[in-house]
Amino acid sequence: FVANDFTDICESKKLGKVFLVSADCLYYSENGKTWNFLKFSEGIQSFKHICYSDDLNMLVVSCVNSNVLYTTTDFENWNTVTLDTDATVDCIIYGGGKFMAVGSKLFISTDGVEWVSQNKTGDKIIYNPLIEKYLITDSSSIYISTNSSGLTWQTVSYELTDVIFGAGAYNCFIGIHDEKLVTSTNGSQWTQLSDETIRGILALNEFSNVLVCVDNTLNEIKTIDVYGDITEQDLDFKAGVRKLIYAGSLFKFITVGDYGYITTSEDGVEFEKGSFIYEYGQYIPVFNSMAYKKVGNRIAIHSSSLYKNRTYLAFLSEDGTLDREIYSNEYNGID
């Protein structure tokens, strides 16, 4: 399939699937390598974040610069949720029996249908099931919920560039502060683990206690085992990682990001380049429309791109493999 930058990925342990969003498409996979389109019937959208609740059997998707969420429980029929006017969402999680979405405000829902808002901004939110509290990162501060309701908060002046909840041997918050790995049992007091420089985004295999950090600027991966030993490697391709998770039901680390790259790893050390979607020189197509037609024993796909003022035609064989491509350096105005 053809896609542009991937923006988010989430897992359903109950279904044994991972769900993925690009700017204009939704996908799912049962192995992290083979991906299928997820049907979406609400027109062309610019997707941003995705979250699945095993408790509610519900998938929630947000859109770029939008106060609208889309939800589904059967992957066929979608419901529209309109949040406060001019609201935006930068992160969605499900934990502690509720959805929590944070961005220009904080939005809380126990059923994915009715949402209440608070004037609490942030760029990421996570849940710690051991202490039944939420943590929000926001610029140079973090907010810790005083209880499991998520309605009252304590402010801590502490900057985290990324943070996760680490189960297994850690059983605490794990974050990055001043390019150092730090941990906290309560979100208020933090302890530095080592002097090693750590940048990027984190994920933990709670079974093997392997911690992985991807520096999405340098394309560098650092893997920290349970003994604190660090393995470093450079990706030999430009992955532009935006999101890293450990999908326990698939027993794999999965990264998604720019340029249509997906990588997977079973041990957190060797990452395999998976579904590289499309690249033409240094040009990555950002499509605003697509159409297809059966031509003999081939399928012709047309897509116009506003991003680089080009038109792309692909001819696929009936089995879906690429047969021939045609490019135009001018946008033809067809929507």
Q: Return residue spans where pLDDT drops below 50 for at least 5 consecutive residues.
A: 276-294, 300-310, 329-335
> Please, what is the oligomeric state?
single chain
Coarse structural class: mainly beta
- The side-by-side strand order for the widest beta sheet comes to 1-2-3-4
The radius of gyration computed from the alpha-carbon positions, rounded to a whole number of angstroms, is 21 Å
Instruction: Please give the share of residues in helix.
Output: under 10%
Number of strands: 32
- Proportion of residues in β-strands: over 45%
Bulk shape = globular
The overall average pLDDT, rounded, is 82
Head-to-tail CA distance between termini: 20 Å
Discrete helix count: 0
Identify the notable features of this structure and list them briefly.
single chain, 335 residues, mainly beta, four-stranded antiparallel β-sheet, globular
Structure in words:
The chain has 335 residues and is mainly β. It is built from no helices and 32 strands. The strands form eight sheets. A four-stranded antiparallel beta sheet has the order 1-2-3-4, with no helix packed on it. Strands 5-6-7-8 form a four-stranded antiparallel beta sheet, with no helix packed on it. Strand 26 (252-257) and strand 27 form a beta hairpin. It is globular and about 45 Å long.
